[in-house]
Amino acid sequence: MTDDVVRAMIVNDDPGPRTVVRFAGDSGDGIQVLGGEFAKAVALAHHGLVTLPDFPAEIRAPAGSTFGVSAFQIQFGGDGVITPGDEVDVLFAFNPAALKTNLDTLKQGGLIIVDTDAFAARNLKRAGYAANPLEDGSLTGYRLMAIGITHLTAEAVAPTGVGRKQAGRAKNFWSLGLSYWLFGGDRVPTIAWIESKFSSMPDVVASNVAALNAGHAYGETMELDAGDAAHGRDAELHHGVFRTITGTDAMGLGLAAVAALSGLKLTYCSYPITPASALLHFLASLKGRGIVTFQAEDEVAGITAAIGASYAGGLGISASAGPGMALKTEALGLAVAVELPLLVIDVQRAGPSTGMPTKPEQADLNLALFGRHGEAPLPVLAPATPSECFRIVIEAARIAVTYMTPVIVLSDAYIANAAQPWELPDLDTLHSIAPTFRSDPDGFEPFTRDPDTLARPWARPGTPELAHRIGGLERADGSGNISYDPDNHQRMTELRAEKIARVANAGLDHEIGSGATSGDLLVIGWGSTYGAIEDAVSRLRRAGRAVGHLHLRQIWPLPTNLGAILARFGGVAVVEMNQGQLVRLIRSEFLVDARSITQTSGQPFQVGTVETALRGILDGLEEPKSQIG
Amino acid sequence: MNRIINLTPKDFETDQEVRWCPGCGDYAILKSMRKVLAEVGRDPDEVVVVSGIGCAARLPYYLETYGFHSIHGRAPSLATGIKLANPELDVWVVGGDGDFLAIGANHLMHILRRNVDVNLVLFNNAVYGLTKGQSSPTSVPGTRSPSTPDGSVDPAVNPAMLALGGNGGFVARTADTLQDHLPEVLLRAHGFNGAAFVEVLQNCIVYNDNAFGDLTSKKNRAENTVIVRHGEPMLFGADNDRGLVYEPVRGEFRVTENAAEASAHDETNWALAAALARLDDPAAPTPLGVFYCAPREDYLSAREARIPYAPLSLGDLNDLLYADSWRA
């Protein structure tokens, strides 16, 4: 368990003051830029935070439409912030469609900040409003700050001489300036970022900076006050060195760490697909330092090129999302058969088929565990938080080269895009990855095995006197020659399974994530549900319930001590964003009556949803608890 | 690396029994490949032969080099990965018409346009052998097979045209039984700095016997084929008394009885190469030889020039990690 997660748990008993802000507008309004810059400023003000970018797959949907609304949610406060928040304290709605589609996220009495200029007849009609909600009394349960953001921005940028189009584009920076006034935030780093981002367009720099300053000045002049909603300002992170990181960037840095720790030439081969493409972009930005990136012609070429790279002595990596993972499954079978190291990263999105490309789901677990032809076991790992992606890919690489096996890492669209502060690890604490390349020709056979790990030797082409052939046809134990011998196939099938089973001995630790180490109910989760489960379990514990939370980082092979942990609890519940995939594994592996809490809405779990479901299970356990588990 | 040593074809024999049907054209290609590998003289430990699935794809098991028998159609992408990780290796990719032109045609196109420095050898027997005789992408329309009992309907693909259209820099055609010409072309392919594509017309003795007999038998060869070589007049016939005259406006050939009138082959001329590749006329011979050879920078060299790979040190990693850090 990483230090940051442990610390979050410890302090989570007292969540402290926190604020949830949600920005919503057209997909062309620059909402994600606004949110991202706000998150950076919040981090630089030493707050804990978690973000939830929530945007459509369309690049720029028709203006004013409800399906084109892009949103960005952030919760900030102290160390205890581990989710993007259930209920929104402050909603920025840049047009009627944004208000319409996001109002239900706002808590009663919450603050709405709207751009009144966008609430004209055409936009109201397009959003499906019969009357203007700013005037018809329908928002009386909320606080309303109605501001003409569009025309105030236009006035502010007029002296820079930019045209109407650019003036319209600057309103996200005006709003950012206002946000800094309301919630704290230093404009200087933002101005530096604007100057660097738009360095070739001085008029854009001038207008964006003018808008940013004007928004801030407006809040100050009008003495606007978010009141209780700004309480997140009152909490800070513990002392340490942090950076704000998304899951994508943490995974990219983790792969860079694999390159540095192993000395292997990492060869990242993938085909563009949402939401995995951002990882290719990150690695390509390293410009060949430690990692070669290759944009393949399709998903199959991506993984087979990665297999080729591993065969040649690099470390092949491929990443994708559900539909692309389906295409890679034949090649995964080959990697299992020829026993080469390989990392395959699945940034899961809602499926099946194209599904909802920008929305998270955890429904590829069965695919990762069982989605191959033949008996083809392989390890499956899953990071729980954005920053944990760093450690998980290092572990995945270590397992891959130690055991000569493909490893699947299951991330998702939420982990990939969400940001959180990451207390940076001391590099001295990272263990090196030491690949062993066979060089001694004496007694060499491509399928003899290490007695401990059952790994076969890694014999790179180019090594003198080790020329040999491998392939997908069943290989004779030892020599690797083609073999259709019945006993050999039985033995090789069992050896491949036993090798993966042994990964459990060397894998990650799986101590109880938090809460009771024994008691009424153990809540098991995996992947991005971590924050919601942890907060829900914390609330139940504060209410006196004997509940524990165990979050699996390695889903296959399951930790050897998991059965013993399950036995310490009266009941077991599994929380996941699918229709119950891990729960079936837990039931079949341990013969326990594990309860299932699932959600497939394309949105992360809310804490309250998990808490309510767990309460229901706990209440049902009161009488017959001794019979469960 | 790149150690040149004295080798004989025998040095490339493995201890594995060859499992092709007796009389299969693959034996002749295997023999030529051993001969060429010996002649090239690259250390066998620096040679990798990659294949997909099919009869042809078994070839790596019979060559004493590094070998990878992979999955159907994907050998070109696997080979690309091998070159990405170690550009120094001498990589050959072998496959049949199903491997290269059906399930893996996409990968063939991309390895050609990228110009990854590998040698691609297509064993074209115009039939699916290992799955027992179905029609293939190169089967002539009307081919009767278990899957097309009334004769196939789909027109055939022209492999050399596909390679030229795919921006291949080296495109050649030869045949299994031409034991002088086949190694000559393979040697030229090996010498090309990039993706060299060689179509080998190959006889399947069980399912499509004599498909290319008109071209490859000693009796017919001289009349029915024209072997083209760069800078030499394109002549054919038992006495080399006839020739091809290239008509650039129409991009076509005319057969001449006056050998002196025959055009010289120019392998750097894409249009001429395409005209040779698609020449399919009962009144004209079928061209064999190196149709096109236009040297250009290979993929790995181009990548290295643009984005040179360098190992990442822990110090570099530290800089990356702490680049956007702040102290709370």
Describe the protein:
The complex is a heterodimer of chains A (629) and B (328). Chain A has 629 residues and is of the alpha/beta class. Chain A has 3 domains: 17-234, 3-Layer(aba) Sandwich (Pyruvate-ferredoxin Oxidoreductase, domain 3); 245-424, Thiamin diphosphate (ThDP)-binding fold, Pyr/PP domains (Rossmann fold, 3-Layer(aba) Sandwich), CATH 3.40.50.970; 514-627, Rossmann fold (3-Layer(aba) Sandwich), CATH 3.40.50.920. In chain A, the strands form 4 sheets. Chain A has a 7-stranded mixed β-sheet, with helices on both faces. In chain A, strands 2-3-1-4-5-6 form a 6-stranded mixed β-sheet, sandwiched between helices. In chain A, strands 16-18-17-20-21 form a 5-stranded mixed β-sheet. In chain A, α21 links the parallel β20 (569-576) and β21 (595-598). The longest helix of chain A is centred in the middle third of the chain and has 20 residues, at 202-221. Chain A starts with a helix and ends in an 8-residue tail after the last helix. With 328 residues, chain B is an alpha/beta fold. Chain B has a domain at 9-216 and 297-306: Thiamin diphosphate (ThDP)-binding fold, Pyr/PP domains (Rossmann fold). Chain B contains 11 helices and 12 strands. Chain B has helices at 25-40, 75-85, 97-103, 105-114, 159-165, 181-191, 213-216, 218-224, 270-278, 299-306, 314-322; strands spanning 47-51, 66-69, 90-96, 118-124, 170-175, 196-201, 225-228, 235-236, 242-247, 252-256, 286-293, 326-327. Chain B has an 8-stranded mixed β-sheet, with helices on both faces. Chain B has a 3-stranded antiparallel β-sheet with strand order 8-9-10. In chain B, a hairpin with a 5-residue loop joins β8 (235-236) and β9 (242-247). Chain B is globular, with a radius of gyration of 22 Å. The N and C termini of chain B lie far apart (52 Å). The interface between A and B is large, with 72 and 59 residues. β15 (469-471) of chain A pairs parallel with β2 of chain B.
